[in-house]
Design a protein that fits this description.
Blueprint (H helix, E strand, L loop, with lengths): L1 E5 L4 H12 L3 E6 L7 H10 L4 E4 L5 H10 L4 E4 L6 H6 L1 H21 L4 E7 L23 H19 L4 E7 L1 E3 L18 H9 L6 E4 L11 E2 L1 E3 H16 L4 E6 L5 E2 H12 L5 E4 L8 E2 L4 H7 L7 H14 L7
Parallel strand pairs: 1-2, 1-4, 2-3, 4-5, 5-6, 6-11, 7-10, 8-13, 9-14
Antiparallel strand pairs: 9-12
The structure holds nicotinamide-adenine-dinucleotide and uridine-diphosphate-N-acetylglucosamine (UD1).
The site of nicotinamide-adenine-dinucleotide (NAD) has 27 residues, from helix 1, helix 5 and strand 5.
Length: about 350
């Protein structure tokens, strides 16, 4: 298939481009590089042996997108482009609504104009809010997102659902990711956060590489195995392959489908720390801090729908994720800036 990938030079996008190319698809990437580096796509080409057509474009720019979508006959769009820092979204809500929501509406208008009515969207488990039932299946009602970032995901889902209702020619897959970590086994591509990492694994790898002194563990008084928060960590390569599988649903003209992409297992913060230490024979110093505002105690998926319908299942375990995260970080202590 000919596939337009928005946000394709970012963390999940670059890993997905590798899997798409490996599966024989033709890929065109648009990205405004606001949170990524074009070098990631050069590294992708080193991995796959295939170049990636890249356009530095903002998805809010109708004319620029229009000219690209008019030039290629895309069978499907995989839409990763968006801002994703929860804390920043609280400080700059208008930027987040404009970039994520208005950007997506613009993208949908361009796709509609060129009759490319197939799209896969990067949603998030955060749309479930504080989940009432664990493990979380796709039937769980959406909850209150405590921040503008999460609101944009929920709003975009609603916009896409309305669009599909209005025109059944649209095939739309909403993928709700749990917690992606890890990196490609080559160590050539990986997560490259700007500044102090917000998320657990990049913080751990920066402690391991000597950039940060110790990990702050946010809360040890939750009702969990050891009191620390529990999440469903998924290897980014498994997640990327989930997108390749989701194309099958698009090909079968699925209408609107929602899938969780997770492993179905929850691990606490301290279990992740210890798994990282064991996998890499390193010590991660940490201190217990108060809970982080907005965090839930436990969040992990029931991922059986994706297995049943898409024949997709996560293959990598926590040790693999820890090994590959560290392999990327130690080979690229400054990300793509070397
Ligand atoms: P990322 O920041 O590495 O990738 C997003 C990419 O989108 C970046 O390359 C950025 O430059 C680009 N971008 C942002 N705004 C754009 C715009 N207006 N026009 C063009 N390009 C633009 O993030 P990621 O972790 O790879 O996440 C990809 C998608 O998955 C995002 O939509 C994110 O919200 C979603 N998601 C991520 C996680 C996670 O933990 N990483 C979890 C759930 C959902
Ligand atoms: C965060 C986002 C969520 C987003 C998800 C995927 C918040 C509040 N939520 O979720 O919207 O969809 O990432 O990227 O930011 N932790 C520490 N110390 C740290 C960092 C994290 O103890 O330095 C703990 C957290 O309290 C949590 C767990 O590690 O229990 C995972 O945190 P994180 O990686 O930030 O992911 P989420 O909170 O699940």
């Amino acid at each position: 298939m000919n596939i337009l990938v928005t946000g394709g030079s970012g963390y999940i996008g670059s890993h997905t481009v590798v899997e798409l190319q490996n599966a024989g698809h033709n890929v065109v990437v648009v990205d405004n590089l606001s949170n990524s580096n074009e070098k990631s796509l050069k590294r992708v080409a080193e991995i796959t042996g295939k170049n990636v057509d890249f356009y530095e474009i903002d998805i809010r720019d109708f004319n620029a997108l229009d000219s690209i979508v008019g030039k290629y006959h895309f069978d499907c769009c995989i839409h990763f482009a968006g801002l994703k820092a929860v804390g920043e979204s609280v400080q700059k809500p208008l930027e987040y609504y404009d970039n994520n929501v208005c950007g997506t509406v613009n993208l949908l208008k361009v796709l509609q104009k060129h009759n490319c009515k197939n799209i896969i969207f990067s949603s998030s488990a955060c749309v479930y809010g504080d989940p009432k039932i664990i493990p979380i299946s796709e039937d769980c009602p959406k909850g209150n997102c405590t921040n503008p970032y999460g609101q944009t995901k929920s709003m975009i889902e609603d916009i896409m659902i309305d669009l599909q209702k209005s025109d059944s020619n649209w095939n739309i897959v909403l993928l709700r990711y749990f917690n992606p970590i890890g990196a490609h086994s080559s160590g050539k591509i990986g997560e490259n956060p700007n500044g102090i990492p917000n998320n657990l694994m990049p913080y751990i790898t920066q402690v391991a590489v000597g950039k940060r002194e110790k990990l702050n563990v946010f809360g040890n008084d939750y009702d969990t195995v050891d009191g620390t928060g529990v999440r469903d960590y998924i290897h980014v390569v498994d997640l990327a392959r989930g997108h390749v599988c989701a194309l099958q649903a698009i090909e079968k003209k699925c209408g609107l489908e929602i899938f969780n992409l997770g492993t179905g297992h929850g691990y606490s913060v301290l279990e992740v720390v210890h798994a990282f230490e064991t996998a890499n024979d390193l010590k991660i110093p940490y201190v217990i801090q108060p809970r982080r505002t907005g965090d839930v105690a436990v969040c992990y998926s029931d991922a059986s729908k994706a297995e049943k319908v898409l024949n997709w299942r996560a293959e990598f375990d926590l040790q693999d994720m820890c090994r590959d995260s560290w392999n990327w970080q130690k080979n690229n202590p400054n990300g793509y800036d070397d």
